[in-house]
Design a protein that fits this description.
The chain has 353 residues and is α+β, with helices and mostly antiparallel strands. The chain has a domain at 139-306 and 319-336: L,D-transpeptidase catalytic domain-like. It contains nine helices and eight strands. It has helices at 2-29, 79-84, 91-94, 139-163, 247-256, 281-294, 308-311, 324-335, 346-350, and strands at residues 171-177, 182-188, 195-201, 223-234, 237-242, 265-268, 277-278, 299-304. It has an eight-stranded mixed beta sheet. Helix 4 packs across helix 6 (281-294). The longest helix has 28 residues, at 2-29.
Length: 353
């Protein structure tokens, strides 16, 4: 028993000496670092330094622990793989943000001139003058219209209602028949047909049958005209200026060698005339207000020596210029759309109706 314990003690001491000797031997061979002294720090290699291994890198074990203090870990790759690697881009760099705003420079387009109110011009004809203009919009005209407008408008509205014509009309026509001493008022709505509204008696008109040829002949002109001017301060209450001489009048005057054709032919108030058409103050007010209402380009004037619609064209007068039959043909054509009143019957003529 004692021998066994001694034997175990001897074997333990021998093992201890053997272990110490092995350790010293390993240290001398450089295979085991000495345990004495401070621990030397591990030198970090640069990121691009080659791995010092003639036989290539050892296989990387996915379970191998790598210290964070040994520098940048580099895995081997071939030259082709290195050239094919491109910088990484995030998804946000490739796709636009749905909340971003796209901005573009817009081409600046200059504004066009604002549209102007168009007024229908009168029908172009050799018998009319292109100088017809819109009514003079000055304070005198406005003041005069404010004075006579309400009463004239009430009378006109009643006349249009009796004739079953829409008020206000789009166009009007003053058909003047010299031998009957009457001015027919015709009107129509936009795109509608002409209807006669009223017949105004002519209270005074000088001259005789035939066109006006020169200043001072006291003739009322004949032809197809327009209204070129509204005079709110006329000596004859109010007046509407006929655009005599028109283009045709000037052409025929040049052909005949005539000069000083005259002018200032008016529809006006009162009962005095020297080549004009006097219809009295109330009738002049109604024609004046009506022309201002529809606009002068929408007023047509036809002046005929007689009613060509019922009596036909007159025979040529040897004392008149050779162009007068052509003028009357044109006047008859211009009168055709305007239906006159029905011809009086024999019975109504007998009783004076």
């Amino acid at each position: 028993m004692k021998f066994g314990k001694v034997s175990l003690l001897v074997l333990g001491v021998a093992a201890s000496f053997a272990g110490a000797g092995g350790t010293i031997a390993l240290e001398r061979l450089g295979l085991l670092a000495a345990s004495q002294g401070p621990v030397q720090s591990v030198e970090k290699l640069p990121a691009d330094a080659p791995i010092p291994s003639p036989e290539g890198p050892a296989p990387v074990d996915r379970f191998m622990y790598v210290s964070l203090d040994v520098g940048t870990l580099r895995l081997p790759m071939s030259t082709e793989e290195t050239a094919a690697v491109a910088p990484l881009r995030t998804l946000s760099e490739d796709l636009p943000s749905p909340w971003s705003t796209e901005t573009r420079a817009e081409r600046v387009v200059p504004l066009l001139e604002p549209p102007r109110l168009a007024i229908r011009p009168p029908q172009a004809s050799a018998w009319t003058s292109p100088r017809a203009s819109a009514p003079l919009r000055d304070y005198r005209l406005a003041r005069r219209l404010s004075e006579i407008g309400p009463g004239a408008t009430r009378r006109l509205s009643a006349r249009f209602g009796t004739a079953k014509v829409a008020w206000p009309p789009a166009e009007v026509a003053f058909v003047t028949i010299k031998d009957e001493k009457v001015v027919e008022l015709h009107a129509r709505p936009e795109g509608g047909s002409w209807k006669m509204v009223h017949r105004y008696p002519v209270l005074a008109a000088s001259g005789k049958s035939g066109p006006k040829l020169q200043q001072g002949d006291r003739q009322v002109p004949e032809g197809v005209y327009g209204i070129s001017y509204l005079n709110p301060a006329s000596r004859y209450h109010v007046s509407l200026r006929v655009n005599y001489p028109n283009t045709f009048d000037r052409q025929m005057a040049t052909k005949d060698g005539r000069r000083d054709l005259g002018g200032d032919i008016m529809f006006h108030g009162k009962a005095v005339s020297a080549g004009c058409i006097a219809v009295g103050d109330e009738a002049a007010e109604e024609l004046f207000v009506l022309a201002a209402e529809v606009g002068l380009p929408n007023v047509k004037v036809v002046i005929a020596p007689s009613d060509f619609r019922r009596r036909g064209l007159p025979s040529a007068d040897p004392g008149q210029p050779a162009w007068v039959p052509g003028l009357y043909t044109e006047v008859a054509s211009a009168m055709a759309p305007f239906k006159g009143p029905p011809s009086p019957s024999l019975l109504s003529s007998f009783f004076g109706n």
